[in-house]
User: Which sequence fits this backbone?
């Protein structure tokens, strides 16, 4: 591998890895609070991308119920991204109220949460298909405004391409991670969140409204999922209503690698898997999709608590 | 009647097939193990049948054996699935709960990507023109039907046998079962292998039924669909996966008049069923029976 | 006396805590052997070491001279060591009868296929399992409620069912962890008689953990006293009662 190839892979890996990280954080936050995996997270990822697309572009293709309709919005991309992610966060809240809370209050088997969240995922994905069709949506190239789509660098006689999208993705992810880290570590709500994750009963005895914290968690989770969806969508296009499924699964690999419920673990896991995928040799690129799952399987067998998770202690 | 079968044969056979796949998840669950590996073994079994049915190497066998090649395909699929299940199961079944579920999802995905890239599995296109066992779709009930009967009888017997009791004891309290002389690893792997062999055989029966086989046959969506069958049907008795598999796989067809919105409704059904029937359809039927018994004051009085 | 069970310098640490430390004792065949001590003295941990549920840190455990340490719980159970649990671990979702049938696992052989085909030997075996389960349920006075789920039983009935389940193993040794917990005094007296009766009927050796001192003094042939993970006295009830270290442990613990 030449230096240029190495740098190119590193750049691609970190860029996509940072998206994996913020997406996986959405899973891990919910897991740390409720101990369950939200199988609708991939659908919210998809939904976020469509929300932003609608706000920024305002067209709906030719296959769905809304075909031909145009919205005269043309909101700048940065603002659309924010609003779209907030909307995804609100869908997250709705999801918790519809699919998780009723099960919790009934003290139902936690396996059922997998099915009910899958039900919501089906609703979201098929509603998207119904409304805007199954075609691929691509953000227009000037979505970020009037800047060059890519820059080239010469390294030892070979070129390294830095796409503007990659820079934006990385920058947005860093901002979000910093903000999230600040919120969790230093604000009242973040501390309450940690307390609930530690022990719900104790937290509620301390006067923390557990129900409110759960809502906040689902909002943040949905926000992160929707944001990640948009970022991937701007980079590679929105490949139909099902495009979140693959990312939904990769996200699972990321959180297990980092340690279920661990926030720094999700970030580390995202970067590691992003890099591992980027460094798959071109001859084996067809197996790239299996990298995350190979990691997932091996980590579970060798170190089930993940890189940064707490070890599980079995009680007698 | 013939018209009805002509028009709905495919659906009816699919319902039986899906019920069988739901049962393949039920055996590990009997031990309390949430394994989502079935689609992987189902895909594997289908590839085994499709490969034996199409490649040049087996041509003389196909010519001389005639229809006997089909049961041999099922057998081969069962053996290969069982063997792989032992290899995967022994390390994976040390994991509990959601960790096992995730490991089995990873297994399914790895298998899928591998099949997508191998030459022998036809890559992304898959394998076309898998020889048919019957002329009409409906006739495949003669393969899936008897298998379902066999599995129901098997489950009935298992529930009342030494091995089945060991399964249930592990589900209830693995540690106590261990202290009562039951080797948990051994029985968990056994239950996993039973599920895998069943899924593999169903796959091998399905390749001729569907005429074609590709990597879309074993996906994450299928994992969750089968889980939904078992949980919505009821995971505490063999009737659960049967009812859940048949009803949920028929649901999109029943909702067909709703056209494009039917899959949305399907999603809502999953949500509400998990909330309002936490013990599944079989559990809800059981409750209803207890309720009527109590109201009418007949039958065994319980407590 | 024939030594049946022998512990030699058993140790178990949890992090820095020495839950069981250098404990050595011998149990003779047919004995009722009591294990007492203040809360947190390491009694239940010792039971868990003996049944393989908790691995030992160091030390050796022998049964009829054969090494038990290092074996998984089910292998130890198969040697004929049955137990009950302090916090009752019945198979809650199974019926009382099934709970006892489960426990006949090691004394039966039917496999997956013989069970499926209903071979004559597996049918005969199943019949024996059924009969034995009823016998044991009758023994503990629960035969009238065989089909009820274990979770619906009262606390005392659950304890009795758990003893019946341990007996279904056809054990040589049973370990009873606080069998009298939650019982009133007349029930406790009944339990004393019951434990003696099953010892004689099944030729058992009984180890039991118990807090209620009069019951232990009355029932046990010999007693071992644990305090902070260490064995401070072993002997006949009358001796142990007079042992100054024991008196201090109990009074000092207040």
Assistant:
């Amino acid at each position: 591998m030449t230096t240029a190839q190495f740098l190119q892979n590193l750049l691609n890996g970190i860029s996509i890895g940072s998206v994996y990280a913020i997406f996986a954080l959405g899973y891990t936050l919910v897991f740390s609070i409720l101990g369950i995996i939200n199988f609708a997270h991939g659908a919210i990822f998809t939904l976020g991308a469509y929300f932003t697309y609608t706000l920024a572009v305002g067209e709906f293709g030719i296959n769905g119920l809304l075909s031909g309709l145009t919205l005269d919005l043309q909101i700048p991309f940065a603002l659309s991204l924010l609003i779209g992610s907030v909307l995804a966060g609100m869908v997250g809240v709705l999801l918790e109220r519809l699919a998780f809370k009723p099960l919790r209050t009934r003290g139902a088997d936690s396996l059922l949460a997998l099915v009910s969240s899958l039900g919501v995922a089906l609703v979201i994905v098929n509603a998207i298909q119904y409304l805007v069709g199954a075609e691929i949506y691509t953000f227009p190239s000037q979505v970020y405004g009037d800047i060059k789509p890519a820059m080239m660098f010469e390294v030892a006689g070979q070129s390294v391409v830095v796409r503007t999208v990659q820079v934006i993705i990385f920058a947005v992810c860093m901002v979000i991670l910093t903000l999230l880290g600040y919120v969790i570590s230093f604000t009242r709500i973040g501390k309450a969140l940690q307390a609930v994750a530690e022990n719900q009963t104790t937290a509620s005895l301390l006067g923390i409204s557990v129900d409110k914290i759960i809502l906040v968690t689902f909002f943040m989770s949905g926000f992160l999922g929707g944001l990640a969806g948009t970022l991937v969508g701007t980079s590679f296009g929105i490949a139909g209503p099902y495009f979140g499924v693959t990312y939904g699964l990769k996200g699972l690999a990321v959180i297990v690698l980092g340690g279920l419920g661990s926030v720094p673990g999700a970030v580390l896991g995202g970067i590691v898997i992003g890099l591992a995928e980027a460094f798959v040799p071109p001859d084996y690129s067809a197996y790239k999709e299996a990298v995350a799952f190979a990691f997932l399987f091996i980590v579970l067998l060798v170190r089930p608590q993940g890189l940064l998770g707490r070890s599980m202690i079995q009680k007698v | 009647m013939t018209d009805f079968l002509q028009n709905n044969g495919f659906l009816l056979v699919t319902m039986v097939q899906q019920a069988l796949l739901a049962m393949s998840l039920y055996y590990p669950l009997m031990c309390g193990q949430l394994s989502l590996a079935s689609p992987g073994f189902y895909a594997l079994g289908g590839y085994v049948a499709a490969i034996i049915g199409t490649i040049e190497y087996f041509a003389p066998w196909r010519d001389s054996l005639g229809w006997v090649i089909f049961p041999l395909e099922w057998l081969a699929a069962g053996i290969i699935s069982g063997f792989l299940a032992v290899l995967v199961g022994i390390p994976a079944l040390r994991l509990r709960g959601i960790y096992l579920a995730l490991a089995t999802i990873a297994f399914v995905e790895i298998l899928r990507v591998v099949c997508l890239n191998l030459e022998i599995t036809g890559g992304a296109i898959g394998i076309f023109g898998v020889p048919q066992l019957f002329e009409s779709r409906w006739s495949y009930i003669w393969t899936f039907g008897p298998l379902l009967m066999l599995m129901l009888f098997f489950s009935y017997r298992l529930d009342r046998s030494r091995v089945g009791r060991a399964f249930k004891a592990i589900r209830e309290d693995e540690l106590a079962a261990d202290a009562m002389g039951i080797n948990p690893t051994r029985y968990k792997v056994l239950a996993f292998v039973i599920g895998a062999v069943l899924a593999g055989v169903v796959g091998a029966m399905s390749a001729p039924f569907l005429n074609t086989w590709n990597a879309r046959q074993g996906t994450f969506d299928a994992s969750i669909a089968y889980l939904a069958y078992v949980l919505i049907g009821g995971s505490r008795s063999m009737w659960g996966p049967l009812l859940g598999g048949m009803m949920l796989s028929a649901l999109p067809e029943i909702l067909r008049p709703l056209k494009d919105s039917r899959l949305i409704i399907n999603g809502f059904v999953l949500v509400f069923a998990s909330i309002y029937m936490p013990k599944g359809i079989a559990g809800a039927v059981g409750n209803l029976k207890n309720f009527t018994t109590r109201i009418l004051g007949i039958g065994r009085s319980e407590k | 006396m024939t030594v049946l069970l022998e512990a030699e310098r058993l140790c178990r640490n949890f992090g820095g805590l020495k839950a069981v430390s250098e404990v050595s004792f011998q149990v003779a065949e047919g004995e009722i052997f009591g294990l007492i001590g203040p809360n947190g003295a390491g009694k239940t941990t010792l039971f868990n070491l003996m049944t393989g549920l908790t691995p030992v840190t160091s030390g050796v455990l022998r049964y009829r001279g054969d090494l038990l340490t290092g074996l998984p719980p089910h292998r130890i159970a198969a040697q004929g060591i049955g137990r009950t649990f302090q916090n009752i671990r019945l198979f809650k979702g199974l019926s009382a009868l099934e709970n006892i049938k489960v426990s006949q696992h090691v004394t039966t052989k039917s496999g997956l296929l013989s069970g499926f085909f209903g071979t004559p030997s597996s049918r005969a075996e199943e019949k024996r399992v059924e009969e034995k389960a009823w016998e044991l349920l009758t023994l503990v006075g629960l035969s009238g409620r065989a089909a009820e789920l274990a979770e619906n039983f009262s606390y005392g009935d659950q304890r009795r069912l758990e003893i019946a389940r341990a007996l279904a193993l056809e054990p040589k040794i049973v370990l009873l962890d606080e069998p009298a917990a939650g019982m009133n005094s007349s029930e406790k007296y009944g339990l004393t008689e019951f434990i003696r009766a099953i010892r004689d009927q099944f030729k058992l050796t009984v180890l039991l953990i118990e807090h209620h001192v009069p019951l232990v003094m009355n029932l046990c042939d010999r007693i071992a006293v644990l305090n902070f993970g260490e064995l401070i006295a072993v002997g006949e009830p009358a001796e142990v009662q007079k042992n100054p270290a024991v008196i201090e442990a109990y009074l000092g613990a207040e």
Chain C is about 40% helix and 25% strand.
